[in-house]
Amino acid sequence: MNPTQYLPMRAKTILNAVSAPNMPFDWSINPYRGCQHGCSFCYARSTHAYLGEAADDTFQHRIFYKDDAPSILRAQLQRMRARGKLPNHVAIGTATDPYQQLEAKARLTRGCLETLAEFGVGVSITTRSPLVLRDLDLLRSLPGVSVNISIHTLDKGIWRTFEPSTPSPRRRLECARTLTDAGIRVHAFAVPILPHLTDGEADTEALVDALADAGVRHMMSSFMRLSTPEVKGWFFSVLRASYPELAEVYGKLYWHSAHLPASYRKPVYARIAAQMKRRGMSEIGAMLVPRGDAALTLGSAPAVSPDLSAGTPASEAAPAASSCQPVQLALF
Questions:
Q1: Please, is 252 exposed, middle or buried when counting C-beta atoms within 10 Å of its C-beta (0-12, 13-18, 19+)?
Q2: May I ask the CATH class of domain 5-316?
Q3: Nearest Cα residue to 190 out of 145, 140, 151, 141
Q4: In 10 A of CB 160, how many CB atoms?
Q5: Of 9, 84, 259, 319, which has the fewest beta carbons less than 10 angstroms from its beta carbon?
Q6: What percent of the chain has pLDDT over 90?
Q7: Which of 185, 190, 150, 206 is nearest to 313 (CA)?
Q8: Which among 247, 217, 27 has a CA at the least distance from the CA of 116?
Q9: Looking at the predicted structure, is the pLDDT value of residue 287 above 60?
């Protein structure tokens, strides 16, 4: 295994405008490039190529961190406030995990949260790590805060195969319970669902039950997308090594598209919707995530709701212009 390297990266801005119409937020922050979690299906893996790096295991072992991110963010917010255009909500961790292992020492995510709290900017955070609990004091002080816990399986073998350096599903469930008990709104991102591995009826029911028992009341589920050749190539190398019998099956499913056929997806989504309803859970896609100055309060009814009657998650209700454009709300 290659030793992990940590490389400082100077950035002119930290707060990034999001113009993609299929993204339910206008601004994002990602303090790190590359991710120590090493998830084989992560769509951000291909972004390492923009840095002149390989999208293979290098993505997990050459981590770039945005040096002095909190100070850069503060200066950026000061300029925006002077123009009367301060954002009211920012999404953190839309590409790589803001609480990956380096954050315990670098504290860039915490510094950004402190800065956002100074300006009264609301935050949603997407992570697989219980390290987010370190910042409970800040989460309690931020307006409209929510934490999206990514967890797609309870199976230890599947977890270790496809998410080699992430905290265990059990620890993520405990994290969700602690956050909920502290009064923090928690959403579960059950993504990505892996066909023929985590989409069985018993698998999805066990996950829904575990999340409900942890106090989670809002959940989003979505099948895996293989959005770029870099991501697809790395995922298939992992699949062949651990589940060679599925390589041909996945090849047929993903050969011509980043998405599974709707005929495969919709029955599973309908079943998950029924399982969620049984446990009193609602689809996160039915709520409007705050964006822009006209944002509704998270949890209120949007003016136009996506049709979830067929079990299709809202994240897929309006397909992107390109079949290879990732439209997930968060890092897989």
A1: exposed
A2: alpha beta
A3: 151
A4: 13
A5: 84
A6: 70
A7: 190
A8: 27
A9: no
